[in-house]
Amino acid sequence: MTGKILVSLLINLLAFAYQAIKPPSPKICGSPGGPPITAPRIKLSDGRHLAYKEQGVPKDEAKYKIVFIHGFDCCRHDVVIASTLSHDVIESLGIYIVSFDRPGYGESDPHPQRTPKSLALDVEELADQLKLGSKFYVTGFSMGGQAVWGCLKYIPHRLAGAGLVAPVAGIWWPGFPANLTGKSYYDMPAPDLWTVRVAHYLPWLTYWWNTQKFFPSSSVAAHSPDIFSTQDKQLAPRFDASQEPYRAQIRQQGEFESIHRDMIIGIKTWEFDPMDLEDPFPNNEGSVHIWQGDEDGLVPVVLQRYVAERLPWVRYHELKGSGHMFPYADGMGDKIMKTFLLGETFVL
User: Fold this and answer.
1) DSSP 126-137
2) What is the C-alpha to C-alpha distance for residues 187 and 337, in angstroms, rounded to an integer?
3) Cβ within 8 Å of residue 298, ≥6 positions away
4) Percent of the residues in the chain that have a pLDDT greater than 90, as a whole number
5) Is the pTM of the predicted complex or chain greater than 0.90?
6) Which is it for strands 64-69 and 49-56: parallel, antiparallel or unpaired?
7) What letter would DSSP give residue 176?
8) What's the CA gap between 337 and 211, in Å, rounded?
9) Helix (H) or strand (E) run with residue 338 in it
10) Where is the AB hydrolase-1 domain (predicted)?
């Protein structure tokens, strides 16, 4: 009798543990009981849908066609390069921007097998279905940088230029020296250090870790002010105000396939090392840029400096006194676009 009770308790305990670590199924947009479809979408070759948003001049009149990839816990509406981009610059340069919800965010279908390569191929298919031409520009902010690195690896022949704005650099990229990644790793706030460990070594526990109440988890997901620089705290109200009308849409299909999946992909060991990439524009027919604040609390500046050192064909712009949210500073959109598209010297 005692043995049967113990077995029953063990089974119930295992069932409870399984339910605790198993993420709920996503609420697919357009499915019964799921969120409504409000955005234009394309159907990808594998059957998934990708929601997008266009702005700027009409694409058939544009001189510069840019695919923008949003960051962590954001969506197609969060186009940081356009947040302070003036109408005059858009019109005078002929800029067209299309942004899209990365898989699992907003109204784009989740993609459980998502990788930097699949993101790059999503970008290419979006550009082709929207008829952007044989070459186009890509720009990614923060976690959206993983898609830009993927584009530089897998579809460099389609690019007219690439911009990375405060891109997340993976501490498990093989090209980083151990002393540099070790310092960046242990300089993290304790909650983020444990979140990174779980997402990298035990990705199947990511959902449980980010939803349990026993220990603090990701300060990034919680938008904790502790990780913000002085400038970030000044600019945060602008970011919050811009997201207010659509914030509920960002994670509406479920937190696991949006922010948790983002953590897993951004933190795991990728199938390639960005620092092994070759110059995609050896004849100066395009350019690759990185903009990085030297007081960024999310992306260590020392890692970005090392990337620029290892890849001398990257044009590196370090912003003194700036944090992660510097694109929301007055006039920053105009400066970034003029540097990126016209080759003007970037001056703060």
Assistant:
1) HHHHTT--S-EE
2) 33
3) 142, 166, 168, 220, 227, 324
4) 77
5) yes
6) unpaired
7) S
8) 39
9) helix 332-342
10) 66-329
